[in-house]
């Protein structure tokens, strides 16, 4: 029994840390500035929702996705041109693109810490 309590305690520490960090990030999110490097459009597979697909279809881009992922050409999203998103201001840009690197869990906002994103690295350095 003691072992279970100790295990539960240690398993809870990362969750608590994430919770605190989530609060801090939500509060300081305005300081986060994208470097527009395009890495997230090259190094991730972009998932599209049913709603994203409907919008892309209606905008005349039914080939922009394959299954539940954005189509990739030469190792990057089909809409990435010169390191910039060519549909950045369009309403049919997939929802997940506007959210990265933030995500919501249990009503709290978090930031994914990913080595390829210089903006998150900078943000975390700034907060130390
Ligand atoms: S749609 Fe634009 S923001 Fe989204 S992955 Fe493609 S290039 Fe990047
Ligand atoms: S990897 Fe980060 S800094 Fe680069 S474009 Fe994506 S969100 Fe912006």
Strand content: 15-25%
Which sequence of SSEs, written as H and E, runs from N to C? HHHEEEEEEHEEH
- Tally of alpha and pi helices: 5
Low-confidence stretches: none
Distance between the termini: 38 Å
Strands, total number? 8
Radius of gyration computed on alpha carbons: 18 Å
Global shape: elongated
Give the proportion of residues in helices.
40-55%
Whole-number mean pLDDT:
84
Q: What compounds sit in this structure?
A: iron/sulfur cluster
Major β-sheet annotation: 2 strands, antiparallel
Number of domains: 2
Write out the strand line-up for the largest beta sheet, numbering strands in chain order: 1-2
Quickly give the structural class.
alpha+beta
Task: Tell me briefly what this model is.
With 128 residues, this protein is of the alpha+beta class. The chain has helices spanning 2-28, 39-42, 50-58, 95-99, 118-127, and strands spanning 65-66, 69-70, 72-73, 76-77, 80-81, 84-85, 102-105, 108-111. The protein folds into 2 domains: 20-41 and 100-128, no CATH class; 45-92, no CATH class.
């Amino acid at each position: 029994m003691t072992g279970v309590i100790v295990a539960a305690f240690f398993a809870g520490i990362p969750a608590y840390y994430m919770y605190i960090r989530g609060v801090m990030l939500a509060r300081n999110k305005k300081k986060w500035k994208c470097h527009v490097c395009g890495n997230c459009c090259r190094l991730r597979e972009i998932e599209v929702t049913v709603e994203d697909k409907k919008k892309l279809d209606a905008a005349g881009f039914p080939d922009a996705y394959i299954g539940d992922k954005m189509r990739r050409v030469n190792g990057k999203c089909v809409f990435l041109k010169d390191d910039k998103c060519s549909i950045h201001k369009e309403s049919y840009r997939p929802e997940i693109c506007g959210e990265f690197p933030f995500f919501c869990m249990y009503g709290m906002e978090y930031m994914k810490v990913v080595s390829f994103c210089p903006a998150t690295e900078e943000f975390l350095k700034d907060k130390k």
